[in-house]
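Model the whole thing, not chain by chain.
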Amino acid sequence: MKELKEYKTEIFRRSRERIKSRKKISKAVLIAGISLCVCLTVSVSIYMRSDMRLDSGFTVEDKYSFNDGADGAASESVFVSVVIEGIDNHDYYDKIDDSIKAEKAYNTISGIFDGISDDEDMEQAESDINVSDALKDVEYSTAVQNDYRLTFTSSDGRKRVYKLSRNRLTDVETDIEVILTAEQLELLYIVLGL
Amino acid sequence: MDNGASSYRRFLNGDERAFDSIMEELFYATVFFVNGYVRDLHTAEDITMDCFSDLIVHKHRYDFKVTLKTYIFMLARSRALDHIRHGKVIRFTELDDAVDICDGALSLEERVLRDERKRTVNAALGRLPQDMRTVVHLIYFEDMSYDEAAKVMRKKRKQIDNLLYRAKKELRVILGEDGERLL
């Protein structure tokens, strides 16, 4: 058996070692915590920046077209021609090569699709069905009553295809269908020269 | 007598000599108590030193709600059980060293148990199961109350009562006629 003094010395030596190792561990934990916080902050800020970019007018297509080129050429392409083909009447074929007219026609169609983007407008469009149904005898008696395929071609060769069947306009790519009002149908006929 | 609590308070206030009085009062008793579990004097010393080191490293873990002795015995029991659970290493000892160890154990018994009656009971304790041995040790050798012993052993007071009753019964059988007189 050792003397109490020896035990005490040993106890204090062990205590000092344990305190040292505890300090080391707490330092390591602190460093790990700080680096974790920094990582989290950076990733959250990157995520928020990409979100803000989307909110400030970029479309989803724009978001994924950053790799198309440094100048974003893909997103700036314009539609330069539109081909109008009769679906029922295969003899009907027309092509608008005037880029201004083609762009105007595309903008008109885009405007029609954009107009039903939110629920309120959807309801409005639903109610318009009745109006257009009521008007359809009048419309189709005077307007051309064929179904058409509208193929827009952009300067870089990109194509958008729409199908116009009586008063229904369908985006073939997305399969979204819009029921046109009499005014919209009339306007579309005018810009397409039908 | 507060079993070291006031000394520990002084130690916390910066009086390093107060630790000496805690050591004097409780160190050998704790080694003796731990030795009852691990049955190896060096391991018992080692575990006891770790328990006392806890008092220095974790200064504010002891809340003065129990006596310091009870607190240290709680630590010691838990560490001893951990040692038994995790450190199942059979150590072989040279015969010459074994004599020293044996002498050490005897001198420890002499230091802790100055009473002949207690020494006789202690010799018989080795034949009791662990829990009974511990409860007899705490109540008769360390003069703890039933509540304090219950805290150290993490049992209810009633369980301590029952254990002690059964331990006495066993000891009477082991000690024979002398047992009646000693208990």
